[in-house]
Amino acid sequence: MLDVLGVTKGHGVKGVVSRYGVTRLPRKTHRGLRKVACIGSWHPARVQFQVPRHGQKGYHKRTERNKKIYRIGLGNCNRNGSTDSDLTEKTITPMGGFPHYGVVREDFLMLKGCIPGTKKRVITLRKTLLPQTSRNSLSEVNLKFIDTSSKWGHGRFQTSDEKKSFYGPLKTN
Questions:
Q1: Is residue 154's pLDDT more than 90?
Q2: How many distinct structural domains can be found in the chain?
Q3: Is residue 84 part of a domain?
Q4: Which tens digit of pLDDT belongs to each residue from 26-74?
Q5: Phi, psi of 16 (to 5 degrees)
Q6: Are both 79 and 104 inside the same structural domain?
Q7: SS3 per residue for 16-72
Q8: 2-7 and 61-67: which strand pairing?
Q9: What is the mean pLDDT of the chain?
Q10: What is the residue range of 4's domain?
């Protein structure tokens, strides 16, 4: 189990509706409707910190805890996308590459769950601070299948050989 530290995807300066999900006011509201209706009472004579305000959305440092390691792989291996159940010789890179990343050429780490930040952003991995005792964290991982179809559209083929055998000879060949 690992903790993943990173900086989230930045969205710039946003209002309260986008930033906190505050309900929009009715259509005929005076001086704007994407606002907080009341930001506080007369006394205390200051705005409380809990009241939603406009400002920076995203690009914050966050820590995702307790991510399970599914696979540690070599980037130059031709079979790093294969499993014990799926013996097809394929790499971890999907057909056409990962969107906004490309082809995986270096060693990689496959984790369960989401990771903060955009593609290609640097992250920090650390061992979890608390000892893991749950059955889920101590159980052994057994991957049955890794999907390597195209992530750009509605990919249906796992390898280029599978695609060629389905379509047969084409005019371009």
A1: no
A2: 2
A3: yes
A4: 999 999 999 999 999 999 999 999 999 999 999 999 999 999 999 999 9
A5: -70, -30
A6: yes
A7: HHHHHCCCCCCCCCCCCCCCCCCCCCCCCCCCCCCCCCCEECCCCEEEEEEECEEEE
A8: antiparallel
A9: 94
A10: 1-13+57-68+114-127
